[in-house]
Amino acid sequence: MNLYTPLKKFFGFTKFKGLQEQVINSIVANNNTFVIMPTGGGKSLCYQLPALMAEGTAIVVSPLIALMKNQVDAIRGISEHNGVAHVLNSSLNKTEINQVKEDINSGITKLLYVAPESLVKEEHVVFLRTQKISFVAIDEAHCISEWGHDFRPEYRNLKHIIKAIDNVPVICLTATATEKVQEDILKTLGIPEANRFKASFNRPNLFYEVRPKTDEVEKDIIRFVKQRMGKSGIIYCLSRKKVEQVAQVLQVNGIKAVPYHAGLDAKTRVKHQDMFLMENCDVVVATIAFGMGIDKPDVRFVIHHDIPKSLESYYQETGRAGRDDGEGYCLAFYAYKDIEKLEKFMASKPLAEQEIGHALLQEVVGYAETSMNRRKYLLHYFGEEFDAETGDGADMDDNSRNPKKKHEAKEDVKLILNVIKDTLQKYKAKEIVNTIVGKENALLTSHKTHLQPFFGSGKEKSSLYWMALIRQILVFSLIKKEIEQYGVVKLTEKGAKYLLKPTSFMMTEDHSYDEGDDNSIITNSKSSRGVADEKLVKILRDLRKRVASNHGVPPFAVFQDPSLDDMALKYPITLAELSTVHGVGEGKARKFGKEFTKLISDYVADNDILRPDDLIVKSTGINSGLKLFIIQNTDKKLPLIDIAKSKGLEMSRLVKEMETIIFSGTKLNINYSLDDLLDEDQQEEIYDYFMDAESDDIELALEEFDGDYDEEELRLMRIKFINEVAN
User: Fold this and answer.
1) How far is the C-alpha of 533 from the C-alpha of 611, rounded, in Å?
2) Would the CATH topology of 534-606 be identical to that of 624-725?
3) Which residues pair with 57 in a beta bridge?
4) Quick check: 598 and 616 in contact, CB under 8 A?
5) What pLDDT shows up at residue 369?
6) Contact 514/430 with Cβ under 8 angstroms?
7) Is the pTM of the predicted complex or chain greater than 0.70?
8) CATH number of the domain at 624-725, please?
9) Which end of the chain has less Cβ packing within 10 Å, N or C?
10) Bridge pairing between strands 283-286 and 328-334
């Protein structure tokens, strides 16, 4: 059949894109059809054109009202009849519903967009049964499968509803589906014989990067966005609260950003979506509620502030970048503790759902931590082979541009697998690591594990090393996490075979992804967070030593290491600039800053350094009220536990807030509280320790005192110490 005449007549195109022509021929021939096409591949034309050509009305099942509205507007724009396309959903009143039915009756309506919930309504089913239906198209078909990333239970019932209306062909379309999801969709709809069309999932113009997520993630994002001022981007966060927070920080820093999540009223959501589409703002900070069907071709970057729950979600969300085949930068921030948070949320769900959730999360961890070509990893997940040497877009990811170092870890893998086996496969990963490094606790002693010959057999390496290796062998399926006994690690069949016949295992030396703070992030890739000027860091350390010696205090009491790194990144040359540096407040800048800003100013001049002018990141002041509250109430000598309770804080969080205040150079007197906690000699002993210590690291202090004091006592004494010697 000649499809080119209607293609030109309705859409003004002279040629089809990719698989469109084959798909449309299949639909026109009344065949059940299954289409898997990546975002931006031209899916909607596959059912719009045959619907406009056929006799009767095509029903399009779609999950989102915003998506339907966009498509209806687009179709109405190519026809002289407004009734050519209609929406039938809960947003219509009685009069509007009657108009829709009238237009269908008179043969004007070619496309009827419905949500699955509306299609279930008996009155609609009765009416549609009397009409000529050309076919049913199910858009975003992955919603049918519980293995899909956006499962909607109401989609499971579509097979029966379609049969109740008419025995017409079914066309399913999705932008993302693994083999498992594909089979599930076809089985649920009862159309296993459908013609299948699968386009390549490769988007060669997209650049993929994963960076370690630190406490400075908002600064990293601002830096990234400011380098692309005026370009459109989407930032995804998992919670509404985080969406609001990030949007606010961006706005304060001169970036045109709006929030978007399901907690906002419909009017605000539509307004913010339109602002983005009409380019009245550059960035949308959103939960996954945003984006399905957002047809903006020039989104230049997609940032994941939090790693998503599945690779399908990730692919779908990153796929919103660069639809015009121009630049598309996909940046994800990753910390393993985010995964643990998602796992905790899942613990309350039914077992079957947990199992699916864990399996999907494991793939995400594998992607984030892999050292292989990220495009190859993604495409492999979708059942597509990719040549990482010659494929289209082969060097468009951080791992290909900055390959990570690897080392042989066969013996260490054997050690882990043997410890899991010898402890009878009853421990979680953390306990396995404690056993390997020889760290006793109540659980291990109760099982007498501390008396076993393998206890402490890997103590020459750190806990972080063993935890990273456990995660890598988890990705290689040598071990699995038990679902029934949440988090317990067991050998897989593959792991048992590996023990019988061990082969080479190249472990990736990578970012230490466990901790969220700057000190623990050891990066070896140029692409991660701005790299500090090492030469300047060395000079600043020497100066810090001299200043500390003149004031008779340890160096860390002047400025901590992360502060020096930040100075060597921002090159502050005034006290005002210095007070924006990580961990430096106005008080500290005034007390110690002069010599540092002078040194940096001379260094910048001598080395012709171009100072960044966009790195002064302002805070939204969200916590400034809390800090003021803490200062005022410690001045009144209120018990710390009461201060914490009145703000609904854990004691550990209050101590952390007090540390932030003290390290930025503001005075905070908590002697009254310490006097209730420790006697004079005890205080003196800890005070003297900090005065002579090389570092203020609490772990080292805990080791030094070997159980004499707990962590909270040492932290509070460190606050007193810094308050008296440094502020």
Assistant:
1) 12
2) no
3) 133
4) no
5) 84
6) no
7) no
8) 1.10.10.1390
9) N
10) unpaired
Helix residue ranges per DSSP H, 296-385: 311-318, 336-346, 351-369, 374-381
Q: Domain 534-606 belongs to what topology? A: DNA polymerase; domain 1 (1.10.150)
Instruction: Give the N- to C-terminal CA distance of the chain in Å, as an integer.
Output: 83
Q: What is the pLDDT, as a whole number, of residue 254?
A: 87
CATH of 406-509, one of 3.20.20.60, 3.50.50.60, 1.20.1560.10, 1.10.10.10: 1.10.10.10
Compute the CA torsion angle 545, 548, 552, 556 (nearest 10 deg). Answer: -100
- Residue 470: helix, strand or coil by DSSP? helix
**Which residue in 144, 91, 137 sits closest to 111, CA to CA?**
137
The class level of CATH for 206-347 reads alpha beta
Looking up tokens 């703000």 gives 647
Looking only at the bridges linking them, the beta strands covering 406-408 and 506-508 are: antiparallel
Position 385 scores a pLDDT of 81
C-alpha 284/C-alpha 243 separation (Å) is: 9
* 4-198: CATH class: alpha beta
C-alpha to C-alpha distance for 533 and 713, rounded to whole angstroms: 36
pLDDT tens-digit map of 68-107: 777 788 788 777 788 899 988 877 888 998 999 999 998 9
In angstroms, the CA 639 to CA 14 distance is 77
pLDDT of residue 524: 27
Hey, what are 698's tokens? 């609490």
**Polymer length in residues for the chain:** 727
pLDDT < 50: residue spans in the chain = 511-530
Token pair recorded at residue 403: 């390959």
pLDDT at residue 512, as a whole number = 44
**Domain-wise residue ranges, the chain:** 4-198, 206-347, 406-509, 534-606, 624-725
pLDDT score for 237: 93
Q: Which H/E stretch holds residue 510?
A: none
pLDDT at 56: 92
- The CA distance from 591 to 613, in Å, is 25
